[in-house]
Amino acid sequence: MFHLISHGAFKAVLFLAAGVVIHAAGTNSLAAMSRMGGLAKRIPDAYWTMTLALLALAAIPPFAGFFSKEAVLVAAEHTALGDRHVAPAAAGWTVLVAGLLAAVLTAAYATRLWLLAFRGRGAEAPDHGRQPVAMTSVLWVLAVPTMAFGLTVGVITDWFDGHSLTPSLATAVLSTGVGLVGGLVTYGAWRHTTALAARTPMGAVVAHPDEEPALVEIEAIEAHTAAYGDVGDAPDPADPGRLLLGPLHRHAATGFHLDALYAVLFVRPVQAAASLVRFLDREVVDTYVRGSATGARWLGTAVRRAQTGNVQTYLSALLAGSLVLAVAAVVFANVNAGS
Length: 339
What we know:
Layout: H1 2-25, H2 30-33, E1 36-37, H3 39-42, H4 44-57, H5 64-80, H6 89-118, E2 123-124, H7 133-148, H8 169-197, H9 213-228, H10 241-245, H11 249-253, H12 258-306, H13 311-338
Parallel strand pairs: 1-2
């Protein structure tokens, strides 16, 4: 509960600050923001509050996220070591190890978000006007519990089960250490990919007046290959995960192919069923509908041809019909009498 409450505070800051950033940048694409300069200066309220919230998200002391995540890890540590018996020791080890791995990843993606959103290198971000006070003031209101809620850890112990929520030295050092490692590795990867992107890119060679354009393009390809390898292999400065994940990056970029698996298991069968339903509707059901309409149209044509407007024709048809009915009546009467 302690972690949920503190998480709600700094995650609310992140969501609302993201709205301010999108409003200021005119886009919700991180790749586009990474190519904008001066965004942090244009929206200082969102910049500072989002920085505080990301530090809390990464569980960096002394922010609320550090104390609340430490409370979870300490409980897992006590359970793993047998000091508490609310769950098996294996469950405690599972939560503890998973929490430390999550601390690395959380710090990594929090650092990446901060770098891409506020440390872009490129043209100045477009000016979409000043953000309303109602949009920015609430960020500072929520920043107060983000910064100070964790400091109440000694006061709110009695609100829960009476166990201390104070961080232990072991988990504090471990979780903060792995979080810093995740953040620093992501920052180093970002710096490296940004430096690579600053080299001579494809097509950046300026043509000499006396040189053929084709020769200039060949030189550009050679310069690009010397810097990056094959054409198209240049690391994206908006994606430091290429160096952070190494050979796993290609699979991670595709969501470890879960979308392809989902497409095979669900999307394609549903599309096939939809195609079958469409075929039955168009070629079977609609055929009967069109057939009934065609039959009614043909019957109407036949009846229309019989309506000549000649009274003698009508009287002849009437007499003929009466004669047929009379003959039929006599025949059926004789048949019934004989039986």
